[in-house]
Amino acid sequence: MRRNKINWRVPKGQELTELDKKILFYQDRGHLVPTRELIKTPEQIEGIRKSGILNTAVLDKVAEEIREGMSTAEIDKIVYDYTTSHGGIPATLGYEGYPKSVCTSINEVVCHGIPSEEEILQEGDIINVDCTTILNGYYADASRMFIIGKTTPEKEKLVRVTKECMDLGAEAAKPFGFVGDIGHAIEKHAKKNGFSVVRDLCGHGVGVEFHEEPDVLHYGRKGTGMLLVPGMVFTIEPMINMGTWEVFIDEEDGWTVVTEDELPSAQWEHTYVMTENGLKILTY
Predict the structure, then answer these.
(1) In degrees, to the nearest 5, what angle opens at C-alpha 218 toward C-alphas 195 and 48?
(2) Which residue from 30, 79, 156, 263 could staple onto 242, CB 3.0 to 4.6 Å apart?
(3) Mean pLDDT confidence for 221-230
(4) Overall pTM > 0.90
């Protein structure tokens, strides 16, 4: 069997704990395991949880205000004002040059849509609002879908099934299972409903930094990917398309990801911590 890289190391002179023994068991058999840095301390998890509370409150505020006829720039202002007035920092603002405090992705836009004064919400639109909050140095990341007024049955189904995909992925994640278990559950449900899973983007570790290991693919095979260990914090954020899974990036802004066939896409996201009993949502 080909060996994966050695991530889990026991400090010299330190006695093996039960956790060390479990992780080394998998590592010795060629599985990819996390580094110690990816296992968050109780203090770190508490910090991420508090950031998650604020992140959830931001999305709740958006839910109160979002409506037909408003611009996505207004959503950006809501996110910035609420976050900063409660002691937080919008993580996307200035991140690798991104110019706004939130991502607003409408209809065929998969993710990373940039808020604009010219972009006005219309009856029937579906929109993903994705925000990440930094509070006292800790990150929490979540997104929600909103339906503007009344939309088509096909779009309603897409939004519903995408949330089901996220929830089923979370249910499939077990301590000492694998990241691939998550993607397998998501892909199976999406395909069963006639939809496709975006492959070019994925969930990720989060908490101390905006993006950490592991990559959480939303497709794949059971028993593959990184070992899931209690204390790991990561997002599950499936992007599900009505048509092809293929996407492209808008050349003008370098950020906006659009479905190749320009059919609608939907996404839901939460930040989770792995516990001894399974996943717990930190952005509920």
Answers:
(1) 130
(2) 263
(3) 98
(4) yes
